Amino acid sequence: MTQQVDDSGLVARARQKDAAAFTALVRRHLRAAIAVGIAVLKDATEAEDLAQDAFTVAYQNLAQCRDPAHFGAWLLSIVRSRALNRLAQKRIRAPHDMVLAEPTTAKEAERFALREQLLQSLAQLTEVQREVVLLHDLEAYSHAEIAAALNMSEVSSRQHLFNARKILRQLLEPKGRP
Amino acid sequence: MNDDDTPIDFSALNPARDSQRWEQLIERVATCAMNAPPLVNLLWLAMARTGRGLFAFSAVLAVCAWLPTWVQGPAVESVPTEHPIAEWARRGEIPPDADVLGLLQETWR
Prior knowledge:
Structural class of chain A: mainly alpha
Strand content of chain A: under 5%
Strand content of chain B: under 5%
Largest interface: A-B, 37 and 25 residues
Mean pLDDT of chain A: 86
Order of helices and strands of chain A: HHHHHHHH
Low-confidence stretches of chain A: none
Number of strands of chain B: 0
Radius of gyration of chain A: 17 Å
Largest sheet of chain A: none
Number of helices of chain B: 4
Distance between the termini of chain A: 36 Å
Number of domains of chain A: 1
Number of helices of chain A: 8
Oligomer: heterodimer
C-alpha cells in the first residue's frame, strides 16, 4: 500500500462530489477491500460484490470519516463489518459453497485450479490469519498499517502472519516433496 | 532468508491481474457508489414501515390496559386521614377521643 498521505486530500475533494477524487480512492483501496472480503467470505466473486457495497456506504458517509488520512483503515472496518453480516446471513440461509467463474480455456482452467487451491488452503486459517496474510502478502500492507486497519498490535500482526504462512506452506507444498 | 519470511504467492487471487477487467471494475464500483440511492433514507423508510405497526400495536395495548379503569372507576378512593394524624404526630400531642372518633366517622362515610 502506498501514498496514504494523499488520502485526506482525496477524501476532502470526494466530499465535494469530485468523481475523479473518489475514483482515485477506489483505485487505491479496492484491492485491499477485496482481500478482506476474501478473508472473511472465502469467496473471490462475492468479495468483489462486497467491496462495491462497502464503497457505496463509504461514499455516502464520507462526512463521518473522522480521520481522512486513514481512509483505508476506515473503509476496511466497513468491509469487515458488512462481510461479517453477510457471513451470518449465509450461515442462516445455507451452508457455504465456493463460487468461482467457470474457466473457458486451458490457461484459465490452470489459474482456476490455483485459485481454488489457494482459497481452500486459506479456509484452513482463522479469519484474522487470513486477513493479515492477504493484506500483507497480496496487498503489501506493513504491520503498522495492518495493526491500524484491524485494530490489533503490530506484534499480533507479525504473529498471525508467521502462523498463517507456516500453515499455508504445509498445505500448498507439492505432494511429492519430502 | 527464513522460509517463513517469504511472502506467499497470492497472485492468482489478485483481482488486478487482468488489467482490462480491473479498470472496468474500478469504474463500476466508483460509478455505482456515487449514483446509489441514499442508504440512510432507505433505513428510515424501513424503520417507518415497521415503526407504524409497532405504534398501532402499542396504542391498542394501552387502550386495553386503560379500559377497565374507565368502566369501573378508580379501585381505591383516597382517604384524607394522613394529614390530621401526621399533624398530631409532628406536634407529639395525644388527640382527644372525640377528635379520633370524628376522624374515623369521616373515613367510614
